[in-house]
Design a protein that fits this description.
Elements lengths: L1 E3 L11 H6 L6 E3 L9 E6 L12 H19 L3 E6 L9 E4 L4 H15 L10 H11 L7 E6 L8 H7 L4 E8 L1 H4 L7 E5 L6 E5 L2 H23 L6 E4 L4 H12 L1
Parallel strand pairs: 3-4, 3-6, 6-7, 7-10
Antiparallel strand pairs: 1-2, 4-5, 8-9
Length: 258
């Protein structure tokens, strides 16, 4: 950037061309600002519903994203940390912000191992995830950081505004991870056996035409609810369906700064 010679009295940094073009006809000097590292925090939902998936679970998709995030953070010199939650804060998956080539790979490995070791785990309900997220977010409240919130958001959104209030000083990027089998009814037979990942309850579902329509409408309604909730804070969620696409993530950030 440029500053006035009066404010930065160092003639060695004088920029004659910039001074000639200056609207106020002032002597301008070059001012070099050193880039400061930006802490990057990823908040990951590891609840039972995140272990659903056809080709790979949503938690494994989240791990792919975290691995790519770690590589990007390392390239620009930013430290990366992780906090996780399900019905409670998962201290066993906590990692303070660190800088290093292998941090993203380490965090992704932790998530993949957790997904394999807890593949059969179920919880009583998803209602506690919002409260657990609030407790996790409170640990970084008031800090300036780039925060990625990774979840399928299959829990009540009533706690989300309070979480965003805690992260008001951070730049929040919601990462909504869904599987293709969730967002569209299967094209097979009319009878479908379903199991609630959070409660473990099983039942059969008759896929009539009206049920298929309500399925699609429910997905569209949930997408609109998420966009509206985050949109009130001028935040645009990033949707991942079945697999992480780094090029789509790049376009997301390019559109955000356009």
């Amino acid at each position: 950037m440029h500053g006035r010679l009066f404010d930065y009295p160092d003639p060695r940094r004088l920029d004659l061309r910039a001074s000639v073009r200056a609207a106020r006809s002032e002597w301008l000097v070059r001012v070099h600002l050193q880039r400061a590292a930006v802490p990057v925090q990823v908040l990951v939902d590891v609840s039972a519903s995140m272990r659903f998936g056809t080709h790979q679970t949503k938690l494994e998709v989240a791990a792919d994203f975290v691995e790519a995030l770690g590589y990007s953070a390392y390239r620009v010199g930013d430290p990366l940390g992780m906090l996780a939650f399900d019905e409670r804060a998962r201290d066993d998956l906590f990692m303070p912000p660190r800088s290093g080539r292998g941090i993203g790979n380490l965090l992704a490995t932790m998530l993949r191992e957790n997904a394999r070791s807890s593949v059969n785990a179920v919880s009583s309900s998803g209602a506690g995830s919002g409260e657990a997220l609030r407790r996790v977010a409170s640990s970084i409240a008031g800090r300036q950081a780039l925060v990625f919130l990774v979840s399928d958001f299959h829990w009540p959104l009533t706690a989300l505004p309070a979480v965003l209030d805690l992260l008001v000083h951070a730049y929040v990027v919601p990462i909504v991870v869904w599987d293709a089998a969730e967002i569209a009814p299967p094209a097979g037979g009319p009878l479908l056996a379903v199991s609630d990942a959070e409660s473990g309850k099983q039942r059969s579902l008759w896929l009539s035409r009206s049920v298929r329509e309500r399925w699609r409408e429910g997905v569209a309604k949930r997408r609109a609810e998420l966009s509206a909730t985050f949109g009130k804070r001028a935040i645009q969620p990033f949707f991942i369906e079945s697999a992480f696409d780094p090029e789509a993530m790049s376009r997301y950030f390019l559109e955000a700064v356009a």
